[in-house]
Amino acid sequence: MFDHACGPNLEFKHNCAMRISLITPEPPSTWTGNRVTADRWTRVLQSLGHDVREDHGLPTGSYDLMIALHARKSAPAIERSANEHPGKPIIVALTGTDLYGDLQTVPAVLASLERATRIVTLQADAAKELPPHLYPRVRVIHQSVTAPASPPAKRNNVFDICVIGNLRDVKDPFLIVKAVRRLPTESRIRVVHIGAALDEGLGRCARQETASNPRYEWVGPHPREAAMMTLAGCRLMALTSKMEGGANVISESIVCGVPIVSSHISGSIGLLGEDYPGYFPVGDAAALATLLDRTEKDRAFLDDLTSRGTALAPLFSPAREEESWKRLLDEL
Fold first, then answer.
1. What average pLDDT does this structure show over 68-80?
2. Does the model's pTM come out above 0.85?
3. Rounded Cα distance, 39 and 49, in Å
4. Two domains, one topology: 12-144+317-331 and 159-315
5. What is the dihedral of CA 105, 106, 109, 114, to 10 degrees?
6. Which of 7, 74, 179, 267 could share a disulfide with 288, CB 3.0–4.6 Å?
7. How many CA atoms lie within 13 Å of 259's alpha carbon, on the beta-carbon side?
8. CATH architecture, domain defined by 159-315
9. According to CATH, what is the number of the domain 12-144+317-331?
10. Rounded mean pLDDT of 244-262?
11. Which residues pair with 262 in a beta bridge?
12. 158 within 8 A of 85, measured Cβ to Cβ
């Protein structure tokens, strides 16, 4: 299956090309962070010279290596591969719901990890959630981003804040609404919320809030390029989630030079650091309102958030992500 003469100093694209089955629970038509991750990894692995096939649910053909995105949803494919092809490596990539929702309650998640040859996380804090005997298998691969070539100018008469996330309970999508309703009358803050309504009831609430709240506009799902342009034109990005595995929008904001405020969750701490000053307690609308008010009024504070992001930007370069995947596949 593998040419063991291929070592870390040789180019994969010339000597060690593999057939890779990338298992993803998200069909191509969806607008989710996992879908964005799957598509980007396909491009990265293809750039390394591999033959990559995205499979929805179960493998559809032969392969040398399986990469399974989502330990719970991809558990049937992981189990089948381990049982039918015990010699073939399996890389399991963990999502936020795997780490912070299902790991302790759904046996299939831990079973998937026990079967994994390597475990990929999107940020450094994630490994703390795993049993210690799995630590040696963990590799952190940061999600890369390319900033828009010609970002729009930021508006001067308003303080635009971007929220990017589908309307789901785990994203706490209306916390931002509760927060902006607490702002002083003179505040220039305006929120644009990009994301699909995966629940019709939440979509109805978002439409009603857009109609009644001059500080909030839900614009529905956008293609990624359009969402990035909107983000780049804003002065702040707010992430209100209850849990994240390592949100794409954090790396996107950093690369676009947009400062961030985020709920104090492991998925953000693993990317921004424990000492990042832009956190607020999960679900705390009053604390978020105070933080938003400060970002609007305190230029030094906003500049500090921006500079901390700038210092982290090299983590999210496409070259670094490609090299991380190359090192991981070299190990196998």
1. 95
2. yes
3. 16
4. yes
5. 80
6. 179
7. 24
8. 3-Layer(aba) Sandwich (3.40)
9. 3.40.50.2000
10. 96
11. 239, 279
12. no
How many CB atoms neighbour CB 204 within 10 A?
A: 12
Helix (H, G, I), strand (E, B) or coil at 250: helix
Ramachandran sector of residue 273 (left: φ over 0; alpha: ψ -120 to 50; beta: rest)? left
Sign of CA dihedral 1, 12, 61, 118: positive
Domain boundaries, given as residue ranges, for the chain: 12-144+317-331, 159-315
Provide the residue count of the chain.
332
Helix (H, G, I), strand (E, B) or coil at 262: strand
Q: Which two tokens stand for residue 8?
A: 């870390």
Q: Both tokens of residue 320?
A: 């670094």
pLDDT in tens, 4-43: 334 333 333 445 789 999 999 876 666 666 778 888 999 9
Q: Measured between alpha carbons, how far is 64 from 133 in angstroms, rounded to an integer?
A: 26
Q: How many whole angstroms separate alpha carbon 205 and alpha carbon 197?
A: 10
CA distance 139 to 106: 23
Concatenating the DSSP letter of every residue in 98-125 gives: IIIIITTT-HHHHHHHHH-SEEEESSGG
Edge-to-edge order in the sheet of strand 118-121 = 51-56, 19-24, 65-69, 90-93, 118-121, 138-140
> DSSP characters for 66-80?
EEEE-TTTTHHHHHH
Report the pLDDT averaged over residues 157-182.
96
